[in-house]
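Methods: example folding runs. The two proteins below were folded one after another, and each record is reproduced exactly as written to the output file, sequence line first and structure-token line second.
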Amino acid sequence: MAVIIGATLFNTSLAGALLLLAGTDSAATELALQTTARVSFVWFMLAFVASPLQQLCPSRASAWLFSCRRALGVIFGFSMSIHVGFIVRLYVLHAPARPPMVTDADFFIGIPGLVMVALLTITSVEALKRRLGPSAWRRLHTTGIWVVWGIFFLCLVDSVGRKTTAHPVLAYHTFIAVLLLGMGLRVVAARRRCGAATSSGT
């Protein structure tokens, strides 16, 4: 709980600092959107790689990540709620038109992604986890984390083709590479588990 509270205070303080220093106009809101998206990405990836890192490269750091992986997922969900707040603000500033930085992919891929993030965050509450049961909860979160991964990947790839930036490597390519690296870790870890299960079965 302390990790969740501390990280959420950090996320909220960062968002407040952006509004205070950069302003509250459309350009400042777009900056806040980009920043909160990247901060949320970091929290997501920490939760995404926690289990395979502990399996493949056990250490004190990986053990801590593994023990906090559900908390990291909740922090990611809360961070995304701040991001959604800036999305709403951007729409208000451009109403009744759609904000020019928002692409069709942002709209049609992003909304289902936000719904999935909300579902994963809500079902991380212990009472709801018990109500779902361990099997259903595991299936939901295993599927959900890959859905969120895919949505990050699709939105970043779409941004490379549609959005202009002075630093595309820092803005998009680096994050795509991190996503692929995280996917590789999970695939290798899954294959190793399957190999171990086959060996023990024989």
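Second run, written to the same file directly after the first:
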Amino acid sequence: MTLKLWKTRGGLVVERDDEFVAVNIDIDDVFAGDDPAAMLRSAPGTPTSEPDHPLAPIGSQEIWAAGVTYLRSQSARIEETDDAQDAYEKVYDADRPELFFKSSSSRVADPGTDVYIRRDATWNVPEPELTLAINSAGTVFGYCVGNDVSSRDIEGENPLYLPQAKVYDRAAAVGPALVILAEPPPPEVGIRLQVDRHGEIILSDSTTLGTMHRRLDELVDYLYRELTFPVGTLLMTGTGIVPAQDFTLHLGDRITITIDGVGQLRNTVGQRAPDSPRAGSKR
């Protein structure tokens, strides 16, 4: 049974067996519930159409992220800094994974909108990642595409600068929908990244979920060990696609991330206006 959850400005839309219905449920209630899939299957709804301009499928949830979960990510992190070589080698093989806070919901970029690159960085890259939707009890109930935009030169200068390289306005994008699955996607699932500039493809790369060094359940276990998430959370699971050091995002670039069976997330690249005031949460 196909089951997907879309967030729109008019509310939630559920796709059930190729039929779209608008349901009167708050997304925080979905994440907080014991059985989000059952809630979405049984919720009464009004027939509608597939959303044209969905929002990021997030309410009050935080986004967390895991790092160095793929061998390619480990190698790239070592390449970008000599100082951190020992740390990245150790965390790749350690029982405890690297986990870090990525974004509050108010800073997340919706599908089809701009993700931002930092003005004080020179090496900005997209990072395509399978993203887990986890309920308050720590159970994964859904999956979506994520983009963990990162400033690799800032992190490479000193690993203690990781929060500045990873956490800023619109450095995260998720969507377009949550795909509700009883089991995780299989290892052969493809993950693809494409960046277009002025109508030309300047970057195209791919990997599979099976190249991930970590198990999804161990990432969730460590995240929930000493943290409570009353309305659940989203967890980006790391990237196996890392652009070469001579590539950096430019303003106006178009990023397309595709994960088989999960979705396709598109964003353009922008930049926060200098000294612009915060407009407040759009959620």
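Comment on the second run: The chain has a mean pLDDT of 92.
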